[in-house]
UniProtKB/TrEMBL annotation, chain A:
Matching SUPFAM superfamilies: TPR-like
Name of the protein in question: Susd and RagB outer membrane lipoprotein
Keywords: Lipoprotein, Signal
Alphabetized PROSITE patterns for the sequence: PROKAR_LIPOPROTEIN (PS51257)
Signal peptide: 1-24
InterPro entries (UniProt xref): SusD-like, TPR-like_helical_dom_sf
Native source organism of the sequence: Pedobacter westerhofensis
Keyword Isomerase carried by entry: no
TrEMBL record, chain B:
Principal location listed in the UniProt entry: membrane
Keyword Membrane recorded: yes
NCBIfam families: OMP_RagA_SusC (TIGR04056), SusC_RagA_signa (TIGR04057)
PANTHER family: HEMOGLOBIN AND HEMOGLOBIN-HAPTOGLOBIN-BINDING PROTEIN 1-RELATED, TONB-DEPENDENT OUTER MEMBRANE RECEPTOR
Swiss-Prot/TrEMBL GO biological process terms: siderophore transmembrane transport
Domain (TonB-dependent receptor-like beta-barrel): residue spans on this chain: 388-782
Protein's name in the database: TonB-linked outer membrane protein, SusC/RagA family
Membrane spanning stretches: none
Compartments it resides in: Cell outer membrane
Species per Swiss-Prot/TrEMBL record: Pedobacter westerhofensis
Protein family (similarity comment): Belongs to the TonB-dependent receptor family.
GO terms under cellular component: cell outer membrane
Keywords: Cell outer membrane, Membrane, Receptor, Signal, TonB box, Transmembrane, Transmembrane beta strand, Transport
Length: 527, 1004
């Protein structure tokens, strides 16, 4: 019989009378209060599953690998990056694509918080950081991959004190970045130690659990960690030049274990259902189409990747040409833009999180900034990045393309003449070593943007950092803080965060966002 | 048995020899209608001598000339008469149900005198309940007892209504009452055979329920079933046929046709913003439905001797819904028997109750896959018959079969599909089997003390087969179709052992006490396999089979077991039959709750005046009760190491919902606790003709357990938390009258129910001013507000069922705000403005019964006042240009807003948010106040014409006949589901039905 509080004397008397019945009351209760159709901690101890069983679901929640990705980033970052646009007029067209983010679609925040951060915390609470340091390192890399995106999207985030209390304080974006660099240090050290001890350990301990294209190789995950470090170092290259340089050079150092490149391929995660979420959104739902800039840049440059990315439009007014939707337009009914160009996505394609070519472009920019990026020039890294991306897309013509001097096309929308736009830039693909810093930076970022497609969070972040590639402003802004001609800087926190973490939220807004929490508020590395 | 009887006869004979002064008394026993009553027990008072009346109601018995006889029969008031030397005694017995001094069955099946109760209870007789029968007995409960709130579910036969007593007490838990049949808690009561019910007793408060524990915190509905009766076998046959027609179908405009911006479309679109037309008609909506048919046939047989009794019944329900193809069938079978052994020392009872229900082609409601969605939004002026042909299909040469014929399939916040195709190609069949086996043994230790052991096993299974045909909505149905199969099985085992005493302690004091032990074990297992939206489909078109599922389809198994045990005690002490003190106590152990919990109750009743038929005030009683009920935690809520769910791709999900923790601190969840008190009075005036019964109650539930969104960075998605305190206060009143005007008897009755709910506090463990309960229906959100929240709109407390949404904004001078550019109204930024509450302010209903000779006439007027309901259907009708007001606006050249004429389509797209979230909630929220003629019945009992057939009664019955008052453009009692969180929301549901029919009752 379990302990209970004695409130009244007659209760004791009453219970004593029936002690026989009472003492046998709870004997068979143990372990009943959970669903036996699910799997228990004890079951998971067999075959060492407990060390890694949370990793697949964590990988699936950096960029969501189910159609929930729609409200995580398809309707936000992928629109802001100029990659994909919705023909659907969600919420009467007052939605994230027209720059209203408050109070709608919490997934941008909740998916990675619930699916990555909370599971990492579970592993830490179980003491796996010391018990299974190698697999814990994978969790840490996943945590940084997700955490970096959350910070870049929202700004302040409770990264370093996550799980310490029920209402932990938010970190400033800079403090969160610092904590993430430390997590990467630890992850790389753990994996290198594991590799040194037994190069085949990953094959037996981890391969079964790796849902990504990195094939369960610790060496590949080290490369992912270094690529994330290089990306983050570059992000703060202006706001904190010294730290950015240190971290970027550390990432490139041979002893660190290398970067994602043409041999490793992109870091992509397969969908649990076997169907790529963009495929469902494009076909079954008819909720996403190509954004205008993809066609005007790629077609203007004569990019061989255009047919690999885009399908010709089927709307009769477009006569089978390639045509995207300008972002954030008026959509009185879905049928207006439903038959503009579709994203050419294969049903079984995994979801890309970090592109194969990103590290090359980061190194090219590093050289431009005077950092030690190893052997190579800005041009050589730039061209290697373009080649890697073209090869990864299974098309040919890199040599010709690298000599291209044609420019972005004008945008024409036959249904809305007022949405037309002249070319935004005259920059070309061909490298020009004598050009100004900004011209070269624009080339590098524009090519990186083409390569990273359709991973919107990275595309949007780099646009916010550098202003490249030049993007069309939205035509139907619904948010008074972002009038016509301006660009969105961040997403607002979901209502559930504002209400459930009221004090921590208020403190973070006051300390790190200048007291203004809206879509126009800049933070940390935003230009 | 025969030998036993002979022995008994011999004994009787001997006794006759000794008592020479005996005389033989003969007589006839009649019922109130002057029909002879067979099988009535006639006993010589103070002895074991007895006999029974024969088929003609006649008896003959030997009695001491100065003795007395007791005449008794179940269902009638017993009478004891002095012989006084008479040799002929004729008696008319009165119906027990009409008797005001009747006994009532209380918790655990203990029978007590009604006047000794210290709390409120309302009795509903089988006659009232079965006056106008429908497929579910619970629908018949509406308007028949104070304190009872009944809301229809999704509609259609086989759907279960929501029943709530005295308001919603629990936020996360089930607010529905516990159903107790013959003293034992039971699930699936909605499908019981109403003809098996002898009496239904509503125990509105927690006080009467303290003995049932956790499960009874929301009140109890006690059902006493019919048992075998003494006498020659009696056979009852009842047949009901009713016919349903839709009421309150949506109104659509008929003057503007298909198209957009006033222009007819070149390719089909399902908007009705086209040019003016003259061929418009809304006939297609009504024509889509058919006349629903319900046939309920039942037969029961009862017989018994002094020692053994048997009851058997069978009922068959066969219903065809108003939607073609949707059918419902049910078979109920009951056998009950009892026998007495060893000179009534041991009484054994047992029974089997079997229910099988089969629902064929149940249709979905709301947006996706609901036939009403495509039907109600069909473009005006287009001929639907072209799409109705061939079951909504057309031959596809490429696929080689008939595919859905509908040019409007488009994902627009919901997919629009051909309603005829849905009827034929989206099929859901459900098969329920429920077997209840129960038995009890009572050992009468002495004439005042007995020991009873009871056990009930309730085994149930549920089979669900859902088939979505190929060529369905591509957003949720794969190219070859979708399939879902569930098989659930469960068993509820309930056992109790009770020691009961009933004794006069002295001349003035009586004691009625029970001590006992109960054990409840609930086991459940569910297996489900299904396609995952459009991500998977079937290997072959329309091949609905588990081996036909492709890819990583969803596969789930659930296995749960719950045990709860308790020890309990109850005592009623009576003084001079006037003052009664009632105390109860229970300690409960539950496998879902870490610690055991205890709760008591105490009540007092004082009968100030009784049996004074000649006074103006013939009876008066006052009562007061205080009761606590603990509520065990929801399954799994307290588990910190719960098992993990596994995905079809082998990956394992982390724990998402956990009991509240802060870093390393963990706080144990406490069981919810409702503390309630009630005071009440019962008065009878004018020779018991006028009855008044009033109750005031206050039930406050503390430590409400519910799930909330965890703060960010806490480490869980949701927390289970002891989150708040909710109070329900209210008044229940019943007034009835018993009038005789010559040959006409008139018995009117009025029930009044008022409940006020308040959220007194929310947990201090968290800082937020609101907890979000529901935010998914696009029109309104359900929040719990902390006292002091700015969203309260000046109110002191929020209430459960408060609705929030977007509203128009006003300047400080009270004038409305408009956007200077567009001219459209300015709306609140977030959908968090207080709109009102979904629960009614009060219910008022009036029942009337007239009897004249063989005729009877009764009707029930039911009124529901206050409360709001929001309608997604009306929102879509505005968006699609189908609501009548959109036509009126177009006739006027637009909508005049703040002096500016705004294009009608622009305006209605704006206020309806194109049918997505963000609409002006107040535009689509309606007062649910309505007064309706809920039931009507006209009956005639044929004069006796045969010895075999004892009585024949025919009645014409109707339900939902007309609305005397209704504001909403639909039946406001509809609710999308019976979940807590569907309060006040209607969305493309099957319309309500007006039923008219006839019932035939024959007694053999």
């Amino acid at each position: 019989m379990k302990k209970y509080t004695h409130k009244m004397n007659y209760k004791v008397f009453f219970l004593c009378m029936l002690m026989f019945a009472a003492s046998s009351c709870t004997k068979d209760f143990d372990g009943l209060n959970t669903d036996k159709g699910d799997i228990s901690d004890i079951d998971l101890q067999k075959d060492g599953a407990e060390a890694a069983f949370l990793l697949p679901v964590m990988m699936n929640n950096i960029v969501k690998t189910t159609p929930d990705e729609q409200t995580q980033q398809n309707l936000q970052a992928e629109s802001y990056a100029g990659y994909l646009e919705a023909p659907s007029n969600f919420l009467g067209n007052v939605n994230t694509t027209t720059y209203v983010t408050r109070g709608i679609w919490e997934s941008s925040y909740t998916i990675s918080v619930n699916g990555v951060m909370n599971n990492w915390l579970t592993m830490k609470r179980k003491g796996f950081d010391t018990k299974y340091p190698d697999l814990y390192a994978i969790a840490l890399i996943t945590k940084v991959a997700a955490g970096q995106r959350l910070v870049d999207t929202f700004g302040p985030f409770p990264y370093s004190k996550y799980g310490d209390t029920a209402e932990p304080a938010f970190d400033s974006p800079a403090a969160a970045y610092a904590a993430m660099f430390l997590d990467l240090d630890k992850a790389v050290a753990n994996l290198q130690a594991a590799e040194t001890a037994d190069p085949n350990a990953d094959q037996t301990r981890f391969k079964k659990w790796d849902r990504s294209t990195l094939l369960g190789e610790y060496t590949n995950w080290i490369k992912l960690a270094n690529t994330l470090r290089l990306r983050m170092g570059m992000r703060i290259s202006v706001v904190d030049a010294a730290l950015g340089k240190t971290q970027a050079e550390k990432a490139v150092l041979a002893a660190s274990g290398g970067l994602l490149d043409a041999t490793t391929g992109s870091f992509s995660v397969s969908a649990p259902s076997g169907t790529n979420p963009h495929y469902t959104m494009t076909n079954a739902w008819s909720d996403t189409r190509i954004s205008a800039a993809v066609v005007t840049y790629l077609q203007g440059f004569g990019d061989p990747r255009l047919p690999a990315y885009v399908l010709p439009a089927t709307d009769p007014v477009l006569n089978g040409t390639y045509r995207g939707i300008r972002p954030g337009v008026e959509r009185p009914t879905k049928s207006v833009y439903e038959n503009y160009s579709k994203y050419n996505v294969a049903q079984a394609a995994p979801m890309k999180v970090v592109d194969v070519a990103e590290s090359y472009f980061l190194k090219a920019e590093g050289v431009l900034r005077g950092w030690n990026m190893g052997t190579g020039t800005a041009q050589s890294f730039y061209e290697a990045g373009v080649r890697a991306s073209i090869a990864a897309n299974g098309v040919a013509g890199a040599d010709t393309y690298l000599q291209s001097t044609s420019t972005q096309l004008a945008y024409v929308d036959p249904k809305r003449p007022d949405y037309a736009s002249a070319p935004l830039t005259t920059n070309v693909v061909k490298w020009d070593e004598g050009a100004a810093f900004e011209t070269k930076l624009e080339k590098i970022i524009t090519q990186k943007w083409i390569a990273v497609f359709p991973e919107g969070t990275e595309g949007w972040s780099e646009f916010r950092r550098t202003g490249y590639p030049k993007q069309y402003f939205i035509m139907s802004p619904q948010n008074p803080v972002l009038p016509l001609g301006t660009y969105i800087k961040r997403l607002t926190y979901p209502t559930s965060v504002v209400t459930s973490s009221q004090n921590a939220y208020n403190a973070a807004v006051a300390a790190y966002l200048g007291g203004v929490e809206n879509e126009a508020t800049k933070f940390y590395w935003i230009k | 048995m025969k030998r036993f009887y002979m022995l008994f006869a011999l004994f009787q004979f001997c006794w006759f020899c000794v008592a020479a002064q005996n005389i033989t008394v003969t007589g006839t026993v009649l019922d109130p209608t002057n029909a002879p009553l067979p099988a009535v027990s006639i006993k010589v008072s103070g002895s074991n001598t007895g006999t029974q009346t024969n088929a003609a109601g006649k008896f003959s018995i030997s009695v001491p000339s100065n003795g007395s006889i007791t005449i008794s029969s179940i269902g009638y008031v017993s009478q004891t008469l002095s012989v006084n030397g008479r040799t002929t005694i004729n008696v008319t017995l009165l119906d027990d149900a009409k008797s005001l001094e009747g006994v009532v069955v209380t918790a655990l099946g203990i029978t007590r005198a009604k006047k000794s109760l210290t709390y409120s209870t309302t009795s509903v007789s089988a006659e009232e309940l079965n006056q106008v029968k429908g497929p579910s007995v619970l629908n018949s409960l509406a308007g028949k007892a104070a304190g009872v709130f009944v809301t229809q579910g999704a509609g259609g036969p086989g759907s279960t209504p929501r029943v709530v007593l005295r308001g919603n007490k629990s936020i996360s838990g089930n607010n529905q009452p516990l159903y107790v049949v013959d003293g034992v808690p039971i699930g699936g009561f909605a499908d019981y055979n109403p003809e098996d019910i002898e009496n239904l007793q509503v125990l509105q408060g927690a006080s009467a329920a303290a003995l049932y524990g956790s499960q009874a915190a929301n009140g109890v509905i006690l059902i006493t079933t019919k048992k075998g009766k003494l006498g020659a076998p009696a056979v009852n046959f009842t047949s009901t046929a009713t016919f349903d027609n839709p009421v309150s179908l949506p109104e659509v405009q008929t003057s503007y046709g298909n198209g957009s911006l006033g222009v007819a479309p070149t390719t089909p679109i399902n908007d009705s913003w086209g040019p003016k037309i003259t061929n418009g008609s809304d006939k297609y909506i009504k024509d889509f439905f058919q006349t629903g048919q319900n046939y309920i046939n039942s037969v029961s047989i009862s017989s018994g001797t002094e020692t053994s009794k048997l009851y058997f019944s069978y009922a068959n329900t066969d219903a065809k819904a108003m939607l073609p193809g949707y059918k419902f069938g049910r078979n109920n079978m009951t056998v009950r028997g009892s026998t007495q052994l060893f000179d009534n020392k041991i009484v054994i009872e047992g029974g089997i109750n079997y229910i099988q229900t089969k629902t064929t082609n149940r249709n979905e409601s709301s947006w996706y896959n609901s036939p009403m969605f495509g039907l109600y939004l069909f473009p005006m002026g287009v001929d639907i018959s072209q799409y109705a042909a061939n079951g909504g299909t057309v031959y596809s040469p490429t696929r080689g079969f008939n595919v859905q014929n509908w040019p409007y399939i488009k994902n627009e916040h919901s997919s629009n599909q051909n309603p005829y195709w849905i009827l034929n190609h989206i099929n859901r069949d459900e098969l329920d089997n429920r077997t209840n086996v129960n038995g009890s043994v009572r050992y009468n230790i002495t004439d005042w003390l007995n020991l009873t052991g009871r056990t009930t096993v309730n085994k149930y299974s549920y089979d669900n087969d859902q088939r979505y045909g190929a060529s369905g909505d591509p957003t949720s149905i794969g190219v070859n179709g979708s399939y879902r199969k569930d098989v659930n099985i469960g068993q509820d085992l309930y056992t109790d052992i009770l020691l009961q005493a009933n004794k006069s302690l002295s001349k003035d004091f009586t004691l009625n006490a029970t001590a006992g032990f109960t054990n409840t074990i609930l086991t459940y297992q569910a297996i489900g396999n299904r396609t995952n939206g459009a991500d998977n489909t079937l290997y072959y078109a329309d091949y609905f089979s588990l081996q036909g599922l492709t890819g990583n389809y969803i596969s789930e198994t659930e296995k749960t077991k719950r045990i709860s045990r308790s020890v309990l005690g109850t005592a009623t002490i009576g003084w001079k039959d006037r003052l009664f003190l009632d105390v109860t106590a229970r300690n409960e152990w539950s496998s879902t709750t870490d610690n055991s919990f205890f709760y008591p109750s105490a009540g007092l009743a004082y009968v100030a005046k009784q049996s004074a038929p000649n006074d103006l005030l013939s009876f008066a009683k006052v009562r007061a009760t205080y009761a606590e009920v603990g509520n065990a935690l929801p399954f799994g809520a307290a588990a910190r190491n719960s098992n993990y769910t596994v995905n079809p791709d082998e990956s394992v999900n982390g724990r998402e919902t956990l009991p509240f923790f802060s870093g390393l601190d963990t706080i144990n969840l406490k069981p919810e606790r409702t503390r309630s008190y009630e005071v009440g009075a019962e008065l009878r005036l004018f020779q018991d003709k006028l009855n008044v019964n009033v109750t005031y109650y206050d039930a406050t539930t503390r430590d409400q357990v519910f799930k909330i969104t965890a703060p960010t960075g806490a480490g869980a998605t949701e927390f289970y938390i002891n989150g708040g305190t909710i109070q329900n206060r209210g008044i229940e009143a019943t007034v009835s009258y018993n009038a005789k005007l010559g040959n006409v008897s008139w018995t009117p009755g009025i029930n009044f129910t008022k409940n006020k709910n308040r959220i007194k506090s929310l947990s201090n463990l968290l800082t937020s001013d609101r907890f979000v309960l529901q935010s998914g229906n696009r029109l309104t959100n359900l929040y719990l507000l902390r006292p002091g929240s700015s969203l309260l709109n000046g109110r002191e407390y929020g209430a459960y069922g408060d609705l929030f949404g977007k509203t128009y904004q006003y300047n400080e001078d009270g004038s409305q705000k408009f956007d200077p550019t567009t001219g459209l109204p300015v709306l609140s930024v977030q959908a968090d403005q207080y709109i009102g509450n979904a629960n009614p302010d009060f219910l008022l209903n009036m029942n009337n019964q007239f009897k004249y000779k063989n005729f009877s006439f009764s009707f029930l007027v039911d009124g529901r006042f206050g409360g709001l309901v929001s309608s997604s259907t009306q929102q879509w009708l505005d968006y699609k240009g189908l609501s009548p007001r959109t036509a009126a606006a177009r006739d006027a050249g637009g909508v005049m807003v703040n002096g500016r004429l705004i294009d009608a389509q622009t305006y209605y797209n704006f206020i309806s948010a194109s049918a997505d979230a963000g609409a002006v909630a107040t535009e689509y929220t309606y007062k649910s106040t309505n007064i309706r003629l809920r039931e009507i019945a006209i009956g005639y009992t044929l004069p006796t014409f045969s010895k075999v057939i004892k009585s024949v009664n025919i009645s014409l019955v109707g339900r939902n006949i007309l609305f005397f008052y209704k504001k909403a453009p639909f039946d406001p009692e509809l609710a999308l589901t019976t979940d807590n969180n569907s309060l006040g929301f209607e969305s493309f549901q099957m319309p309500s039905a007006r039923s008219i029919g006839a019932t035939l009752r024959v007694n053999f």
